[in-house]
Each structure stands twice: as structure tokens, then as C-alpha cells.
Write a structure and sequence with these properties.
Chain A has eleven helices and ten strands. Chain A is α/β, with parallel strands linked by helices. Chain B is of the alpha/beta class. Classes of the chains: A alpha/beta, B alpha/beta. Chains A and B meet through α5, α6, α10 and α11 of A and α5, α6, α9 and α10 of B. Bound molecules: adenosine-5'-triphosphate (ATP) (2 copies) and magnesium ion (MG) (2 copies).
Chain lengths: 288, 275
């Protein structure tokens, strides 16, 4: 599903003395089937932005279209229908867990949206395996799990719905390193096999580089930049100025150029390339 | 400062042990990183450090005094804790009240109190947010406020349970720097629970838990030297370790296991000069 923001403003506690404008005149396009990463400093408006994607909040000004759905301050009729297509994993997993058992929690969405429950139950073992949980968690309370285990349950409860748009708000926070890389591979696999549109909010620049077709950079409630990750991460100074950074491989490549005086070209800006540059450097030294 | 003597823990009498017979110690002024796979028992250990949970077997000592239900109040003045989910920690309706709450309980002089609140909000770059509601903040702002609340209490030890997960890259660097300064200037002891091995590299010592048991204890460098073995217990070698691994396969070895890419490149430079 194509997603378009047109001149969107959002204000928390609108029309009260505490009102706070979190989004200013946002306009951008996310093509159907693309993998988009959203990065930005703490409080830049990322979570506010993505809450518009399933109608949890509506623009105060402007318009958001998601496939055939339109959200604006006036129109908001088919929110439940929209949520069937757009699955959101929230920043804090506790916000989406509420049932007595993990099983009920994961099946809550399918039940709510009228899916074939028997079929979904049969899929449970697979879903759990995908998110790296053992089947014996099914009968446990989601509130008696560790932080990373809760995160995995929250993700399971959304991917089981096979949404056309999967929205992930820092989905790997709290996962152990192996779980983190497995989860990212899972998202990438689902993205391709289900032809889904994926929106990933992240503080890990290397994930944006590895998986995204397009990166939206937020700064103080506005879109600061938008573009392909490789191009975007060349703007080191500008990113630093707004609280961000460049991926570690790029930083390492820069450091090598400055310290060793050898050049690292663009296609070498990965682990293999860098290692080759270093090997050549050492061998050249040994000869001279 | 903190000592665990043969500690085991189970959440219910009829369930199995999630912490199994562990010994550990945290010295005064020491920075210890506690890492391990999801469900390995890190948060459970953290909660036993300030008496939120009491061991099922074994003993926990704070400054050589056994932690019991009778001395919880004194223990919590010494051992501050930032929870994995900051929302579990908010008590005030404004940021100011929230940070003040702990100080009022400590009986801090009101005049001095305001200063301490300001200072700790500055330390996490959240000055100016005094009148905001903690629950109406962004994910990373909530984490910062939770940290400020504990910093203001000036405890002797702070246990950070994945307290930097939602911070942006600069915010994370700044916080690590603040922690380092507090350790050096005030002799603060730090227990940082993290999945980020780059953050673990800041520690004096790393403890790795695996299924409720201590799997490794030593310097970060020694841990990184384990390389791919880390994958067996749900961890992954960091970027620099993978890079070094590739160099080793080309017969390039360094005198010591590098902690970050700067160390690696710097050592190669020295090696090059010597030739
Ligand atoms: N419920 C709320 N009520 C009022 N203001 C809010 C609320 N939630 C967020 N804000 C404010 O809106 C701004 C944007 O917040 P948002 O949660 O979108 O940021 P974010 O980019 O997701 O940050 P983080 O990386 O810390 O999660 C912030 O200044 C925040 O303080
Ligand atoms: N309140 C609880 N009741 C019962 N079991 C629990 C409870 N909290 C945690 N557990 C279980 O105890 C084990 C250790 O959990 P703990 O939260 O200490 O792990 P952790 O190392 O902090 O993991 P994470 O990295 O995911 O935060 C896990 O198997 C978890 O499911
Ligand atoms: Mg957010
Ligand atoms: Mg934990």
C-alpha cells in the first residue's frame, strides 16, 4: 500500500494550555512494497508519525493516505478496517500486551479481525519459532516474562496478522544480539515474501543501511532529509549536528583513510572490503 | 560493595530456578557490565541487588551487611536502580515532582533539593521539561527522566537495566560519558546491563549470564577474544571482533585483542612503522 503524508501537523493536547506541536508540515511518500527506515533524535517525532499509520492519532492539519484510506481531522471512518492492513509494533511492548496468557495475547488480533482461528492456532508454533520463543511460553502470563521475551511476544502478535504494511517502532530494543540479527532477517524475509510495505523506526544506523531502500531523517518534528541510505550517510556532519551518527563501517573507513592515508572506495565500505584494504596495507608495509 | 554468595532464585515455590547458585561481587568504584541472552536472569539479579527480590537460597551482602527485609530502606539509599521499562518507575505527575519524590523521601533540604534536580536533569539533557508529564514524553525522553531520578539521589551504586536502549546515538554517547565521569569523580559503582557489546567495552569487568549461571567473568578484551563462541549463548561478536577475525585468517595478528576499530587500526599503524 502506498503511503502519503501531505502537509501534516500534529499537536498533542490540542486546545489546552499544555498543547505541544510534535509534527510540523510533514510531506513525504512511501512507495508500496518499499522498506523505509525512519531515524531521528529522541523526541524528533518518529513515534508520533507512525501512530498516524494505523489511525491511532489523526492529523490536526493535512492528510495521510494509506492505500485507499484517508485520515484527516474530519474523515476517520474505517479505522478498524485500516488496522487489519496495518500492523504496528509499539516502542514499549508492555503497551500491547494485556491478556492472561501469551497464547491469548497472540491470538487476540486474529480473533478481533475475524480470522480463521483454527488455522491461526495451527500456525502458532511456527510464529513462535520465527520470533525465537519456545512453545512452552504459550500458557504463561506475558507479564511474567523477561523484557526481551515480552518484545518477542509483541512482535508475534503483529506478524501473525500478515499485515500489508508492517510498522516497527524500535523493534529490536531489548533483544539479545543474536535475537536482534535474527529478527531483522525475519523482517526482511517477510518483507520480500509477503510483498509487504515495511516501516522501521531505529536508532541503529547500520540497520537502516543494511535493510532500507529509503531513509527519512526527522529533526524537531520536521523531515530533515530523505533519500537512499548510502547517499544519506555521506552527510556525516549534518547527521551529527542533529544527534545522529553514521554506521560503524563508514566511521571505520573514514578513520582508516585519515590514520593510514590509504583510500577506501565506496564499494569497499563493508567488512570484507575494509579487511582487504587493511591486509593490502600490511603487506605493502612488509615489502617496503 | 555488593556480594552474592551462592544465590539461587525461583519466582514460585513450584517453578524451576531462574538463577542457579551464583557468586559475584561488585567493588567500590568499579564498572561491571552484565550481559547475557534474553531470559538469562539479568533483571532478576538486578532486582536482588536492591532488595526488590530476595534470594530463594544464598545471601546478598551490601557493604558486608546481609540484605534482609529489615534493612531494605538503607540498602535502597545506597543502591539505585534504573528499570528496563522507565514507566514502571514514574510516581510524579510532573517531571519535577517525579525527580523530587525520591529526594523528599531521603529528607533532603528543600533549598538544596532544587539544585540537585536541576543538575541531574541537565546531566540527561532534559532541563526545561520540569512541568511535563512523564507519561506524555517520547520513549527516549522517558528513559532520560528515569535516569535523572536516580542520579539525583546520589547513590553509591547505580544499576542500569538496559537504560540506554531507546537513546539516540549522541544521547547514548553522552550518557556513557556521564557515567564514566561519575565513576571517576565520585567513585560511583556501576552495574550496566546491556546487549550492546560496545557499551560493555566501557566496563572494567564483564559478567556473562547464561541460563541463570555465570558463564564468563573477566575483562571485556578477554570476552571479545572468545569470538564466535559467543553465538552459542545468544550473543554476537562486535564489528571489531569480526574484522579482526578476518585479518587473523590472513595471518595478521595483534598483540592484544582490540576493543574497537580505532585500537585495531592504531595497532596496524604501529606494526607498519616497525617494519
Ligand atoms: N502523549 C504525549 N503528550 C504530549 N506530548 C507528547 C506525547 N508523546 C510525545 N510527546 C512529545 O512529542 C514530541 C515527539 O515525541 P515522539 O514520541 O514522537 O518522539 P520520538 O521521535 O519517537 O522519540 P524517541 O526516539 O525518544 O522515542 C516530543 O517532544 C515529546 O515530548
Ligand atoms: N515475574 C516473573 N514471574 C515468573 N517468571 C519470570 C518473571 N520475570 C521473569 N521471569 C523468568 O525468569 C527468567 C529470567 O528473567 P529475567 O527478566 O531476569 O531475564 P533477563 O536476563 O533480564 O532477560 P532480558 O534480556 O530479556 O531482559 C526468564 O526465563 C523469565 O521468563
Ligand atoms: Mg519514539
Ligand atoms: Mg531484563
Amino acid at each position: 500500500m502506498d503511503i502519503t503524508f501531505k502537509e501534516v501537523d500534529y499537536i498533542y493536547q490540542y486546545n489546552t494550555p499544555f498543547e505541544h506541536q510534535a509534527l510540523h508540515n510533514l510531506s513525504f511518500h512511501i512507495p508500496s512494497g518499499s522498506f523505509t527506515a525512519i531515524i531521528g533524535h529522541t523526541g524528533s517525532g518518529k513515534s508520533t508519525l507512525i501512530q498516524h499509520l494505523n489511525g491511532l492519532i489523526k492529523p490536526i492539519q493535512g492528510e495521510v493516505t494509506i492505500g485507499e484510506f484517508t485520515l484527516s481531522s474530519e474523515k476517520n471512518h474505517q479505522v478498524k478496517d485500516l488496522r487489519k492492513h496495518v500492523g504496528v509494533v509499539f516502542q514499549y511492548p508492555e503497551h500491547q500486551l494485556f491478556e492472561e496468557t501469551v497464547k491469548k495475547d497472540i491470538l487476540f488480533g486474529p480473533k478481533n479481525f475475524g480470522f480463521d482461528l483454527d488455522r491461526k492456532e495451527d500456525e502458532l508454533a511456527d510464529v513462535l519459532n520465527n520470533v525465537g520463543l519456545p512453545v512452552d511460553v504459550l500458557d504463561r502470563s506475558p507479564f511474567e516474562l523477561s523484557g526481551g521475551q515480552m518484545r518477542r511476544v509483541a512482535i508475534a502478535g503483529v506478524i501473525v496478522l500478515e499485515p500489508s504494511v508492517l510498522v516497527l517502532d524500535e523493534p529490536t530494543a531489548g533483544l539479545d544480539p543474536l535475537g536482534r540479527s535474527q529478527m531483522l532477517k525475519l523482517f526482511s524475509h517477510l518483507h520480500q515474501s509477503r510483498q509487504q510495505t515495511t516501516v522501521l523506526v531505529t536508532h541503529h544506523m547500520e540497520d537502516a543501511l543494511a535493510y532500507a531502500d529509503q531513509v527519512i531523517v526527522m529533526n524537531q518534528g520536521k523531515v530533515e532529509m530523505i533519500g537512499e541510505p548510502k547517499e544519506l550517510f555521506k552527510k556525516k556532519e549534518r547527521l551529527r549536528d542533529i544527534g545522529l551518527d553514521i554506521p560503524e563501517v563508514f566511521e571505520c573507513a573514514n578513520y582508516i583513510e585519515n590514520k593510514l592515508g590509504v583510500s577506501v572506495n565506496e564499494c569497499q565500505s563493508n567488512m570484507e572490503g575494509i579487511s582487504q584494504v587493511l591486509v593490502d596495507f600490511v603487506k605493502a608495509g612488509a615489502r617496503s | 560493595m555488593i556480594k552474592f554468595d551462592r544465590v539461587s532464585f525461583r519466582y514460585r515455590d513450584d517453578s524451576s530456578k531462574v538463577i542457579n547458585d551464583i557468586n559475584l561481587s561488585i567493588d567500590r568504584g568499579e564498572w561491571v557490565a552484565l550481559i547475557g541472552h534474553n531470559g538469562s536472569g539479568k533483571s532478576t539479579v538486578a532486582k536482588m541487588m536492591n532488595g526488590l527480590l530476595l534470594p530463594s537460597e544464598g545471601q546478598v551482602f551490601i557493604d558486608d551487611i546481609e540484605l534482609t527485609e529489615q534493612n531494605l530502606i538503607e540498602v535502597r539509599q545506597k543502591v539505585g536502580m534504573v528499570f528496563q521499562n522507565p514507566e514502571n518507575q514514574f510516581v510524579g505527575t510532573t517531571v519535577l515532582d517525579d525527580v523530587a519524590f525520591g529526594l523528599e523521601n531521603l529528607g533532603v533540604d528543600p533549598e538544596y533539593m532544587y539544585e540537585r534536580i536541576q543538575q541531574s536533569l541537565k546531566q540527561v539533557s532534559m532541563d526545561g521539561y520540569e512541568q511535563h508529564e512523564p507519561h506524555r514524553l517520547s520513549g527516549g525522553q522517558k528513559q532520560r527522566i528515569a535516569i535523572a531520578g536516580v542520579l539525583a539521589m546520589l547513590p553509591e551504586v547505580i544499576v542500569f537495566d538496559e537504560a540506554t536502549t531507546m537513546l539516540d546515538p549522541m544521547g547514548r554517547k553522552d550518557l556513557l560519558q556521564t557515567m564514566k565521569t561519575l565513576k571517576e569523580e565520585r567513585g560511583l559503582s556501576i552495574v550496566s546491563i546491556t546487549h550492546d557489546l560496545t557499551e560493555a567495552a566501557f566496563a572494567d569487568r564483564v559478567l556473562v549470564l547464561n541460563q541463570g549461571e555465570v558463564w564468563f567473568e573477566g575483562e571485556p578484551r578477554q570476552l571479545f577474544a572468545k569470538g564466535e563462541e559467543l553465538e552459542n549463548i545468544g550473543l554476537e561478536p562486535p564489528f571489531v571482533t569480526k574484522l579482526y577475525h578476518q585479518l587473523k585468517s590472513e595471518n595478521i595478528t595483534l598483540e592484544r585483542e582490540p576493543l574497537d576499530f580505532k585500537e585495531l587500526v592504531d595497532e596496524l599503524w604501529t606494526l607498519h612503522l616497525k617494519k
